[in-house]
Amino acid sequence: MDGVIAYAHPVRVKLTHPVSLLVGFVVLAVCAIAFVDREFALWCKGFAASMHPVVRTTIELLNEAGEGKYWVLASAACFILLAVFKQHNLARWSFAMLASVGLSGLLVNALKLIFGRYRPDLLHKQGQYGFEFFQFSVGYDTMSFPSGHATTIASVCMVLWYMLPKWRVVWVLLWMGVLAARLLATAHFLGDVLAGSALGASVALLVLRIWRRRFAASVPVALNS
Predict the structure, then answer these.
(1) Assessment of whether the complete model's pTM goes beyond 0.85
(2) Which terminus of the chain has fewer CB atoms gathered within 10 Å of its CB, N or C?
(3) Which sign does the torsion angle of CA 177, 178, 181, 186 carry?
(4) Could you read off the pLDDT of 40-83 as tens digits, one per residue?
């Protein structure tokens, strides 16, 4: 089982190493911050102003899909109920989701305090752009980096990627949809959502790899039907 999560049928899926995924997304995030964040945020602001109401509603729904509290509560409730009814494989996947979203959520909030990046709103309204490193100021306007919504949805979709591999296109679309929604809501810069994706996906992979290596007998089985 080394390096894989098993299917119910004899098909195996390799787990991407979390470090390689983290490095890839971080490189993209750094490039975005250095070269395109400001200009792209201004473009998103202009595009958002002319969005059709249906598109705006879709953006709002996708933003809600990235709220960590919903996933934590839902996965915790599913874990308890499924364990009670002895649906052990699904209970294990629920626990994987809970651990991934919960841990990545704690980490992203700590990083927000360390980096102290200004939100796009401050750029649009006051011309402020940049970071306040190690100021540990608690406030919406200086907690842009990394994106918490991007972190959550990356963790969620990474778990679902291995849990329900036949639906991988859906999980990728959901992931990208939430990232786009955060940008068009002018809540984040491109670098923020890339960094959040790096964190969330890497934590989910780390949870699955540790589980596989330390508790191989109870590793959850992918659903292949």
Answers:
(1) yes
(2) C
(3) negative
(4) 999 999 999 899 999 999 999 999 999 999 999 999 999 999 99
